[in-house]
Amino acid sequence: MSRILVTGGAGYIGSHTTVELMQQGYKVTIVDNLSNSNINVLDGIEAIVGQRPDFAQVDCNDQAAMEQVFATYPDIEAVIHFAASKAVGESVEKPLLYYRNNIGSLITLLELMKKHGVRNIVFSSSCTVYGQPDADHLPVGEDAPIQKALSPYGNTKQINEEIIRDEAHADANLQAILLRYFNPIGAHPSALIGELPLGVPQNLLPFVTQTAAGIRKELKVFGDDYNTPDGSCIRDYIYVVDLAKAHVKAVERMLTGKSAEQVEVFNLGTGRGLSVLEIVRTFIEVTGVNLPYQIVGRREGDIEQVWANPKKANDVLGWRADTPTADILASAWKWQCHLADKK
Ligand code: NAD
Ligand code: WQD
Residue 307's domain is classified under what CATH number? Predict the structure, then answer.
């Protein structure tokens, strides 16, 4: 079976994807510098799959160390590139760090893929490239216009997509699939792997579960005066395990020569928009746990509403994100409880 190089494979989405790949029989080599993850994640993966992925603690920007990885595993057939810094607020404070890490990593990777004859790359992009789509483009299809990024982080995703397109144009051997994720949430049903936010979570779900666990005093709901049915913002929350499975489909598509274009783009979402208040209510219903919250002012830079049209991924990849919201939120809570037990 083919070997897949998973950069950032110790992280949230990368670890779930590694599990799905290994369960389908793929060999996986993870490269991660552990800047936003913990080596114990490998134990979680091993406990679920019954086998440990190969691992190299390497920074993707370190050309020599990455060269060594490609030399050690000459059977790599595809790369899934998750490794990146991803905190939107931090990227505004430290833009150079974000440009260096996220863009430098991709360039190094593409150079080494070419050198070692590895033709296939799946890239972690984001719905952030669409900004706030106008009403005609909701739900958002892949053909919706790309809008000027609102943060250096978002800009790195746009630039990386362009780098991949330019390189594919120059090198007919390169195949790429750009996956634009909507809002990944939840954890593996085993609660052996999940999201590990460092410090105060910026994203909704980790803040919800930490508040329910008593780590945070109350959830702040950022705005209830938006032009949405209940006034709070709407997103497309996709279960991380469903998202992970889409990566397996993407890899399969490239390795079996089914790609219709050299660079293909897929939106990965459920097609269902949920408001912040719907998430809060469902979480309370599903878990029965008290979740103190307060409505506060809007958060600067927030998009009012965005959700995916996942038809292309459904039809072409034969993939669907159909885990019920209740199950997803239950998995997030189970993971939070598991983290508390470990302490
Ligand atoms: P994460 O931080 O949990 O995982 C990223 C991993 O990459 C971490 O383990 C980190 O240690 C590693 N890493 C970072 N820079 C590295 C480098 N230079 N060399 C080696 N390893 C490095 O994040 P995630 O949520 O799993 O996100 C994975 C990818 O998906 C990222 O590219 C992110 O931008 C993208 N994405 C995430 C979301 C989201 O909401 N989580 C949404 C859209 C896109
Ligand atoms: C979701 C909703 C908040 C926290 C960000 C990045 C985006 C992508 C995913 C990678 C919003 C509300 C949140 C809280 C709240 N990442 N909220 N109280 O903003 O959709 O996207 O992560 O590519 O690029 O921008 O996700 O989880 O931060 O917020 O009310 O304490 O929850 O206002 O409506 P977002 P999020």
Answer: 3.90.25.10
pTM of the model: 0.98
- Residues 12-56 have pLDDT tens digits of 999 999 999 999 999 999 999 999 999 999 999 999 999 999 999
186 C-beta neighbours (distance < 10 Å), count: 27
Enclosing domain of residue 172:
3-184+238-268
For residues 285-295, one letter each, b for 16 or more C-beta atoms within 10 angstroms of the residue's C-beta and e for the rest, the string is ebbebeeebee
**CATH, residue 24:** 3.40.50.720
In 115-269, which ranges are E strands? 120-126, 175-181, 183-185, 219-222, 234-235, 237-239, 263-268
Pocket test for ligand 1, best of 19, 36, 243 (most atoms within 8 A of CB): 36
What type of residue sits at position 68?
Answer: Q
219 and 115, same structural domain? no
Closest C-alpha residue for ligand 2 atom 27: 203
222 and 150, same structural domain? Answer: no
